[in-house]
Design goal:
Blueprint lengths: L6 E10 L3 H9 L4 H8 L2 E11 L4 E5 L6 H8 L7 E6 L2 E2 L5 H10 L1 E4 L11 H5 L1 H5 L4 H14 L15 H14 L4 E5 L7 H18 L2 E6 L2 H7 L2 E6 L2 E6 L1 H6 L4 H7 L4 H4 L2 H4 L12 E3 L4 H8 L6 E6 L2 E7 H7 L13
Parallel strand pairs: 3-8, 3-9, 6-7, 7-8, 11-12
Antiparallel strand pairs: 1-2, 1-4, 4-5, 9-10, 12-13
Length: 349
């Protein structure tokens, strides 16, 4: 896999208002979101966004309501145009595309899964799933076969002749995912795709997405306001506040080393034992250590606590598959479970 990012955002700004360019100068001079709105009646949507999204990874963008996360994802396929900055997809500047070029990238390179499902009520489930291919002019035999393949993969075999109103919310969202997969694009954009679902269905959909990603290795940009969901799904986590990136990186690293009081407050209530993995807290092998047994680097700490019976004097050898990669002292595990105390005022989600 190439090290060149699949999607690269550089110096991305979005200001909503009648004269975004004039307002941009105030922002670059240091004016914040509240002051810009009060003095110039413009809304700062995004501020100097610099993010690389790697091929085959899930990049999760999260933040509180109004942080700019949905604005950001809509820039990737230019449903929203930026006030300034670059949007590069496979090294190509999306801002330089013609109308036909932009239409081509939306049809062939990026698919989108919406929070509200966006299914056509007068079309069957098979027809909804096949819509990207129908729009491209693919013959019915081909689009129907592709739609059926992906409907089966998302657990909807037998529902192809039903209509959206006959399906539950979770089933409708599965159709949305099948539609995105039928498009066979490299990039999937998912804007709060599971937010409208009940908790148990939401968990099932998260598991389904991870299962499909293990097989397909899509480049997924996933928007959420839920930190548990973000930590479960993300290879790369980007946290926004007031349109700016507060911290980004590997999720486990952010949880263990928050760089900002805002992030400290954000992660303070997380069940760290369920989220953190052995690889995040293990150390190098040491000589003369007696091991209680072997554990996998990808196991969460909750499972290790259960294995150890909660005893802090034990040490385990850590494997990545069959390869020994380190050791985990239960005392180090206990230290990792204690969150850093936030120095910022609490901000409700």
């Amino acid at each position: 896999m190439s090290n060149e990012p699949k999607v690269r955002l550089r110096g991305l700004y979005k200001i909503f208002g009648t004269d975004g360019q004039a307002a941009l100068e105030h922002v670059k001079a240091g004016m914040g979101k509240d002051e810009l709105l009060a003095k110039h009646h413009h809304v700062l949507g995004l501020q100097d966004i610099n993010v690389d999204m790697q091929a085959g990874e899930i990049t999760v963008v999260m933040g509180l309501s109004g942080s700019g996360k949905s604005t950001l994802i809509r820039h990737l396929n230019r449903l929203i145009d930026p006030t300034a900055g670059e949007i590069l997809v496979d090294g190509e500047d999306v801002m330089q595309l013609s109308k036909s070029g932009l239409r081509a990238i939306r049809q062939n390179k990026m698919s989108m899964v919406f929070q509200k499902f966006a299914l056509l009520p007068h079309r069957t489930i098979a027809q909804n799933a096949a819509m990207p291919l129908v729009v491209r002019g693919v013959e019915e035999k081909t689009w129907r076969a592709e739609a059926m393949k992906w409907l089966e993969r998302v657990g909807l075999s037998g529902y192809e002749n039903h209509y959206p109103a006959q399906l539950s919310g979770g089933m409708q969202q599965r159709v949305g995912i099948a539609r995105a997969l039928t498009a066979n694009t490299d990039i999937m954009l998912m804007d709060e795709a599971f937010s409208a679902l009940d908790p148990l269905i939401r968990t099932d959909m998260q598991d389904l997405l991870l299962e499909l990603q293990e097989e397909l290795h899509k480049t997924i940009v996933f928007i959420t306001h839920d930190l548990d969901e973000a930590l479960k799904l993300a290879d790369h986590l980007v946290i926004l506040k007031d349109g700016a990136v507060v911290q980004q990186g590997e999720p486990q690293g952010i949880l263990l080393n928050p760089k900002d009081p805002y992030i400290e407050d954000f992660v303070s209530d997380i069940n760290r034992a369920r989220v953190l993995r052995v690889r995040s807290v293990m150390g190098p092998l040491k000589e003369g250590v007696s091991y209680e047994g072997d554990v996998q680097a990808g196991d969460n700490l909750e499972s290790l606590i259960a294995i150890s019976g909660g005893e802090t004097g034990k040490t385990y050898r850590v494997l990545e598959g069959e390869t020994v990669v380190g050791q985990l002292d239960m005392l180090d595990l206990v230290k990792a479970l204690v969150p850093r105390i936030s120095s910022a005022p609490s901000e409700a989600l």
